[in-house]
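Annotated sample (chain length 490).
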Amino acid sequence: MGEIRLKRELGLLQATMMGIGGAICAGVFVTLGYAATLAGTALIIAMILCGIINLFTMLSYAELGAAIPSAGGEYTFAKASFGGFVSFATGWFEWISNMFYAAFSAVGFAYLVSYVIPTINIPLTAAITVAIFTLINIKGVKETGLTQTALVMILLAILGIFVFWGILTSQGTNSLEFKAPEGFFGVLRASAFIFVVYLGGEAIAVAQAEIKNPGKTIPRAIMVSSLALIFIYTTIAYVVFKIVPPESLAGQASPLAYVAEQFMGPLGVGIITIAGIIAALSSVNTSIMAHSRVAYALARDGYFPKAFFNLHERFRTPLIAILIGSVFVAMFAATGIVNFVTYATDFGFIIGFIFVNLSLIKLRRDKPNLVRPFKVPLYPLTPILGIVTSLLLIFFLEPSTLFIGAELFIFGLIAYYIRIVGYYRICLAVGGMNLGISAFSALLAYLIISNSLPITLSQNMASLLFGVAAFISVTYLIAGFLNITRKVGE
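Output written by the structure step:
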């Protein structure tokens, strides 16, 4: 089978860096301001709460990834446990959310660069960024992993300087009390808002077909990256509120850079901006890799065109899947609609989390003898908590997020039924609708010309409406016959 031609070249360090780098995006550098208005200094608690919610599902990823180390991540898990529309829907949301996440990260990179070079064209910069990392991903997963490892190592070093300098400095408030202006409700709203900073860690599962010794490496990489993210975000939030009060972050374009300036001066602004740029590039890198592997897996099972399943002869990477997905990413990034891509990313990933936990429960019941190198502790409590907490986050997202999610679901439903019904039958259905519209328009034209309508029309208006109805009737009649007489092989 084609899938075995994917190279297993990622070790523990590269897989771990992929998980950390996929999650630490430009969002953490710009979201703290609004989140602080919701939760105050209790944002530290929100960071820990988000980390625990993320960990519940990451444990399920670890068990399933070690047991079923095939390309596709959440889609592969849902296929093994449910199959049919549930598996397709999981893969669809995973594919869409990773493309939006790549677009979000590319736009975030462009905005961060604009702090240093105000004259740059943000949409063009975002699109060029996508193009560069598309080429890196085409060359091979090894190059992707090496690039990711280097970026994340530099990023962690810079954040380490920020945290240790902030802890040791005598500047700032030097006192910290947990206060939430809106109470625990505000903490939950802040948790839903900042949850995007934990997304992307599932890139380890998406790349599981290219990880060495998956039974051991995948669970270790997922656990280390998940715990590291909790530590990183919590210490960053601690330093932020040690230096400045929450209310001072409101309206800041880059809250983290603002805080760094308070105790590090212009140097702080510079290194935090560099860190944000690296974080954004790291997320673009992993999310492009992730969306292509999901499309590759969907094509493997016939849900996407077979071209997505083709591998580059030399690099053995899914060339068409990378290119087509990256075209969409570049289009989304070039529009600059940051809110849309953020909401779509949140909703898609959370839906994926729910399906992963459901897949774990079903596989435990249906396939008890499946070899599991790693098992989720405290089963079934852990995956149930993963499902409940993910649903809770959905209720605290912006209402527009649910609308976007419903639209994405409808598009996915249409794509699924086109695949199930088949192209020829779709043509027959469309042809039938065309003939129906043609017949209705012909009837309307007859009623107009015979003055049989229940309303009185002037001669000019009647002539105009008759001409329009007759034109529509003839056009749809031709379209209908073309569709129903189309050959199967066309």
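Annotation: The mean pLDDT is 80.
Annotation: Residues 266-300 form the longest helix (35 residues).
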